[in-house]
Sequence to fold (709 residues):
Amino acid sequence: MSYAPTERTDLSALHLQDRHTPLGLSGDDVVAMWRTILLTRRLDQKIWALNRMGKAPFAVSCQGHEGAQIGSAWALREGQDVVCPYYRDTGVMIALGMTAREILEAVFAREADPNSGGRQMPNHWGSARLRVITGSSPIATHIPHAAGIALAARMRGEDTVVVCYFGDGAASKGDFHEAMNFAGIHNLPLVAICENNGYAISVPLARESAVENIAEHAHQYRCMGMIVDGNDPLDVFAAVRGAVSRARKGEGPSLIECKTYRYLSHTSDDDDRTYRTPQEVEAWRKKDPFQRLKQYLIEQRLLSEAHEAELESEVTAEIEEAVKGAEASAPPEPAAAFRKVFARPLRPVAGVPAEYAASQEGIAPPASAAGGNGAGVPADAPVRTFIDTVRETIRGALAADDRVFVLGEDVGNRGGVFKATDGLVTEFGEHRVLDMPLAESAIVGVAIGAALHGLRPIAEIQFADFIHPAFDQLVSEAARIHYRSNGDFCVPMVVRAPYGGGVHGALYHSQSVESLFAHVPGLKVVIPSTPSDLKGLLLASLDDPDPVLFLEHKKMYRAIKGPVPEGVEWRVPIGLAEIARPGADATIVTYGLQRHLAVEAADRLAAEGCGDIEVVDLRTISPLDRDMVIASACRTGRVLVVSEDNHSFSVAAEVAAVVAEAAFYDLDAPVMRLATADVPAMPYAPALEGAVLITADRIADAARRLLQA
Ligand SMILES: Cc1ncc(C[n+]2csc(CCOP(=O)(O)OP(=O)(O)O)c2C)c(N)n1
Ligand SMILES: [Mg+2]
Fold:
C-alpha cells in the first residue's frame, strides 16, 4: 500500500500567472513567506544533524510540511488569533514568531525553553506570549481545547479565531469527532487544519480512515470542508485566509485538509524504510513546497540568484548563532522538577527527595477553619439540603461573575438529572447553562479550553461512573498544563460529579472515583460533606487557578440538610480537614457521606460507654491535610480510616500510610481500614448491595475492635 501524490497535488507547469496579488500579498510578502520556509527547512536540517551527532536526543522533522504550515499561519491575525499546534509544526511556530534560538533551547532542553523550561520533549509547543496553547503528546486531545477557546472567545465578544492543527492520524480519535461536532453545533470560530501526510507513523491512510479524504468529515459536523494542495503555500494561504475570514464573520468552523508528505522518518527514533519505498518519497520530493515557492518567485522575477544567496547566508548565520547560544545556555536547575505542579500550591509536594526539600516554592497554606461544624456560619443561616445548596451556590456564582458558566449533559431545560441546575437556564440563558452532547471528553476538553481563555467553567459529569471517557482530558491535560508549560498556563476549572453508592444504582451509577484522581499530581480533589462546606468549597474551587474535581455523594443530595451562609462571600479553604467530632480514645478519618455515618457510630459508642472517638473529615482529598490527620492520630493513638471506595490502592490506603509513617511511635494499635471490598461497585440487588455497603453499624463494629486492640 502506498501513498502517491494525486492529481490534486500535481505540479502545474509554470507559474507565469501572478497568483499572489489577487490574494492581497505583495511581492515582498511572498519573499518573506519563502524566507520563513527557508529558515524552517535549514533549522530542521540542522536539528536533524544535531540529533545524528548525538547532541540532540530527540527530533521531529517538519520537512515537506512547510507549505501547509507557513502558508496557513500566514493567514492569521498576529496577537489576536489563538493557535493550538501539532508537534510537527516547527514552521507554524516560526511563522508565529518563535525564534530559532528559542526552538533550539527546547531541542537542548534548556531552562530558557519558552515552551516548557525543559520539562517536555522538543516540539511540544506553548507560549502565552504568542497565543500558542501548550500541547501534550496524546494525539488529538488539543482539538476540544480549541473548540473551548473558540466558545470562550465568542462568549467574551471577541472576534478571535482559533486555529487548530493535527495530522491524519488524529482524525481517527474520538476527540477530533467530539470537538468538530461541538464546533458545528455552535457554529464556532474554529479553523481545523489537517496536515495529511498519508501516515500515522507507519500506518497508511487506507488503514486509518474509512474515507479517502479527512475533509469528508466536515459535512457531518456542519463545517466547511476543503482539500488543498498542502505543498503549495499560496493555495494553503488562500484557503485558510478564507476560512479565518468566515470564522471571524460568524460563519462557522472549517476543516481544511492539506495533502502533504513528510520527507524524513516520523521522528529521529523511527525508520521509515520499514513502511514506505524510496520511490514514493522521491515522487513527493518533486513537489517540495520549498522548491515550488522558490520556483514561483523566480518565475515572477521576485527573487534573483544574488538575493537568494543573501537570504541563505542570513539564515545560516542566524541558525549558527542560535545553536551556539542555546548549546551554551543553562539547563534547568534540578530543584525545578518539583515546582509548578499547581498554580496555587496549598501543601508541599509529597515525596520530594531530601536534598531538594528546602528549595521548594512557597506554599499558601489554607487559612481559617470555617465550615461544616458551624464555625463561622451565622446562627440565622437558612437550612438547606445538599442539592439545593449546589444549585443556589451555582446560581450565586453565575450572578456574581460573568466568567462563570455551566456545561454538561441535561443541565439546561432538564436542570440536571439530580436538579443541580434546575431553573438556571431560564434565569441565565443557554450560553451560560450549556447543554452538551453526550461526550464526556468534549465536556471536560471544552471546559479546559474555556478556562485557558479566561472563563470559569463548571462542568458537570452526570454520574462519576461516566467520567472515564474524560480521564485523558483530566489526567493528561488539565492536571499537567501548568507544570508542562512551566507555569505559562493554568486551568481554573471545576468538574462536578455525583458519586457513590447505596442508592441501588448498580455497577455504573455507584462508583467512587476519588482514589483514581487523587493519585494524579496537578488535580485538586474535593469532597464536601455538609451544605455549608459544599458552598464554601465550591466557591473556593471557582476562585482557584487549578483544576478541581468536585465530588458530591449523591445519597447526601436530599438526605443531608444544614445551615448555609447567604451571599457569595462564604469560603471554606481547599486543603483543610475538619474535626467533625472531637474525641480522645481513637480517630476515624473519613470524608463525604461516611462522615455522617462515622459521627453516628461514634455517638453510639460514646452512649454505650465504649470510648470517645474523634472523627476527622478530610473535606479535601488532594492535597491531603496530613497535619490534621497526624495530629489527631498522635493525640488518640488509634486510627480507623473509613471510605466507600474500594479497599486496595486507595485514599484510605494513603491515609493509613501517612499515619504509619508519621505517627507510628504514638500508636497504641495498628491502623485499620474499613472500605468497600475489592468488587466492582456496586451490585444491584438489595441483598448484594447491602452486603458490600459501609454502614454506621459496620463502622461501629470496626471502631469497637480498634478500641479493644
Ligand atoms: C493517543 C496516542 N496514541 C499513540 C501515540 C503515539 N503516536 C505519536 S505520533 C503518532 C502518529 C500520529 O500521526 P498523525 O496524526 O498522522 O501525525 P503525523 O505524525 O503523521 O504528522 C502516534 C501513533 C500518541 N502520541 N498518542
Ligand atoms: Mg500523518
Notes: The first helix runs from residue 27 to 52.
